[in-house]
Amino acid sequence: MTPDTSTTIPFLAVPEAINPSTPTAVADRWKALNRSVTPALAALSVIFWLVGLHPVTPGQMGSLGLINQLSPILLLSYPILLAAVVLELVADRPRERLLTAYAIAGVLLVYGLQPASEQTARLSVAWLHVGFAQYIAAHGQVLNGYDGRFSWPGFFSLVAFVSRASGQTDMTPLLQWAPAVLAGLAVLGMRALATAVLGSGRRAWIATWLFLLTQWTEQDYFSPQAVTYVLMLGGLALTARYLVRPLPATSPRPCLRGRLVPLNTPRDRLLAQAAILLIALALAPSHQLTLFVLGGLLLVMLLTGWLWPAWLPWIVLILSLLWFCLGAKDFWKDHLDLVIGHVGQINFSVQQGLSQRFVGDGGRIVILTVRVALTCTVGLLAAAGWWSLHRRTTRSWTLALLAIAPFGLIILQSYGGEVILRSYLFALPFAAILASVAVDALLTSTWLDSRRTALAVPVVLLTALGLATVTARGGNDAYTSFSRADLAAVDYAYQHAADGQTIGALTADLPLGYKRIGAVRPLTVEATCPDFAAIDACVVAQAGDFLVVTPSQENAGQILYGFPAGWTSQLIHQLVTSGKYRLVYDQNGSRVLAETLGAPHG
Amino acid sequence: MADKLLVSLSAVLLVSLAVTLVIRTVLAEQSAGTGSEPAPAFERPTLVRSLDIACAALAFSAVTLGILRVVLGTVG
Q1: In chain A, what residues touch B66 (CB-CB under 8 Å)?
Q2: pTM of the model
Q3: What are the φ and ψ backbone dihedral angles of A121, each rounded to 5 degrees?
Q4: Which residues are CB-neighbours of A189 under 8 A, at least 6 positions away?
Q5: CA nearest A273 in B: which residue?
């Protein structure tokens, strides 16, 4: 439209595009400001996080774990980063590079928190896995009859191979930052899956962020399940990109008998199938559960008419079954009842996975409640997303079934009380994809009062999810994390133990088994004592040649068993005064007792 | 002895399955084309169907032998 200049003074007539007071110019200025605001916010967030970090030891933590030790400035970094992410996502042209950088920052903030603030790697199982790998590196084979996990040695063999090839015999330095690296790779896999299913738009980024902010299960430590989970996500992403048609989020319902050929070349599909088969071959000897889940998810895709190559799920399931039959004899010859003994006993699985885990003091119950609330929130968001999708775009049940299918594990077995946790982990990628539809609807909603509210609601929601995950992930750190002094105490015990001797711990919360597997036997009184409340008698009978006592175990007794403060010191006093043990090492509350007859001298 | 025999037989079946599956998949994908043809339903060629049956038989045999090994191993 040509402005009417007849009534205006020529030198004051400013073109509309550069008039700072017109709505368009204001919008342009706001956009320009917005483009520099989001990187500034993200940078500020990382600075706050770095400034707010400080070292934390298990002795400082209570039953709420790490969250109580975090500084306010560090906690402030999470909403700031998420505000930057949401502002970037709602921009006219979201910048992919910046969103990638924000995702990397998000991985650091959520998964790098414990490695950055704790002195050593947490979780005793991670340390044990290093021991398994070092045994294979030293002997060239697994140790039969030692541990069921040796029946799936793929991951340990890979670490052993890297150890031998690099000449680095001690792989424990890999432990501390493994969660950040492996969770980061999982986020990358999630991003690939989300873009394959949802396209490269905003929803795919939201799905990636929902995954990043709600993965509270802590299965990303140095372990076979963490590596195989990344591989599984890679396999699913390849499947969704090359081997399915139509996309479930955009098209009408397909059917099993009338499956469509994907819109790509035979070469692309053959390469994708070869890659997925290769992934399956790597998963089969590496983890007992992951390949079954991948096969199950592919089967759901096939039965809903989404997957093109019908043979793929069957061959994946056959591979996992055949490895179990042919490669895991050491496991099933003694433990077959663990696998098939509870098939169909859903009550047992739920009791083991949920109700029996609700033990401990008030703080512990709060942490468990946060985990359940997080899981339910993701479930509700996914249900809302599916409903929105079902109403507007597609009548396909595929995505919903893919998000629900992993919970079928509950029918098969309790998986040592972890089946609900594992089911959530495997369901999360597709649940996050569905939930992203709901969150995207929030961002673009017209029923919220104003644009600011429409932006604030997702920021608050994502911040709540992120902080809940930080709380849940660090909730056990009072007893699952260790200090350098704890590690030095264990090292002392290993240095002085002779072949055939045992090193004992009161609870399982000690980094045992990371060296001399098969020569020195690690022992946990908690696992063998029929009544842990009457621990005194058990310790005298079972504690072994060396007994390592740390603040983490003190915390475990208080939080999980309701023992009084100082119970480990009282126990040590009793053992020493009885003459059965003597204190041979004491540093910052980490103590080593040696049985009197076999105690080291000098 | 029976255990080793079962493992060896399963391995032979698995290798046969892998070879048959590769041939079957290459043939099937080449027949399917790029997916841009107007006809939505894809009919498998007769040879691919025959190879599908062979794959199913090999896979079924391998799994049966594997399960037999577990049964014999746990009972024995």
Answers
A1: 321-322, 324-326
A2: 0.91
A3: -65, 145
A4: A230, A233, A234, A236, A237
A5: B25
ipTM of the complex: 0.92
DSSP labels, A583-602: EEEEETTEEEEEETTT----
Q: Which one, of A322, A183, A302, lies nearest residue A239 by Cα? A: A302
Distances (CA, A) of A398 to A226, A232, A309, A412, B75: 26, 18, 16, 22, 41
- End-to-end CA separation in angstroms for chain B: 12
pLDDT at res. A384: 95
Tell me if chain B has a CB within 8 Å of the CB of A271: no
**Nearest by Cα to A194 from A204, A206, A182, A181:** A204
Sheet holding A546-549, edge to edge: A521-524, A502-505, A546-549, A590-595, A581-587
> Whole-angstrom Cα distance, residue A66 to residue A546?
30
A337 lies within 8 A of chain B by CB: no
Does any CB of chain A come closer than 8 Å to the CB of residue B2?
A: no
Instruction: Return the pLDDT at A259.
Output: 81
Q: Which of A245, A315, A325 sits opposite B21 (nearest CB)?
A: A315
- Residues of A with CB below 8 A from B33's CB? 261, 266
A335 in contact with B at a CB cutoff of 8 Å? no
Chain A interface disruption, residue of B6, B17, B34, B48, most A CBs within 10 A: B34
* Kind of pairing between the strands at A502-505 and A521-524: parallel
CA dist., res. A369 & res. A358, Å (int): 9
Percent helix, percent strand, percent coil in chain A, to nearest 5? 65, 5, 30
Peptide bond before A115: cis, by omega within 30 degrees of 0? no
Residue B55: closest C-alpha in chain A: A311
Please tell me the predicted confidence (pLDDT) of residue A505: 93
> Which distant-in-sequence residues (6+ apart) come within 8 Å of A237 by Cβ?
A189, A192, A193, A196
A164/B contact by beta carbon, under 8 A: no
Q: Which amino acid is it at A487?
A: L
Nearest to A539 by CA among A498, A491, A578, A513: A578
Is residue B2 classed exposed, middle or buried when 0-12, 13-18 and 19+ CB atoms within 10 A define those classes? exposed
Locus of tokens 């896999």: A189
* B71 close to A (CB below 8 A): no
Give the tokens for residue A357.
Answer: 């885990």
pLDDT of residue A26: 60
List CB contacts (< 8 A) between A325 and chain B: 10, 63, 66-67, 69-70
What separation in angstroms does the CA of A157 have from each of A134, A168, A185, A186, A321? 9, 15, 20, 21, 21
- Helix intervals (H) in A140-223: 154-166, 178-198, 202-214
Q: Which residues of chain A have pLDDT under 70?
A: 1-31, 34, 247-254, 446-449, 451, 530, 533, 597-602
Sign of the dihedral defined by the CA atoms of residues A92, A98, A99, A102, in that order? negative
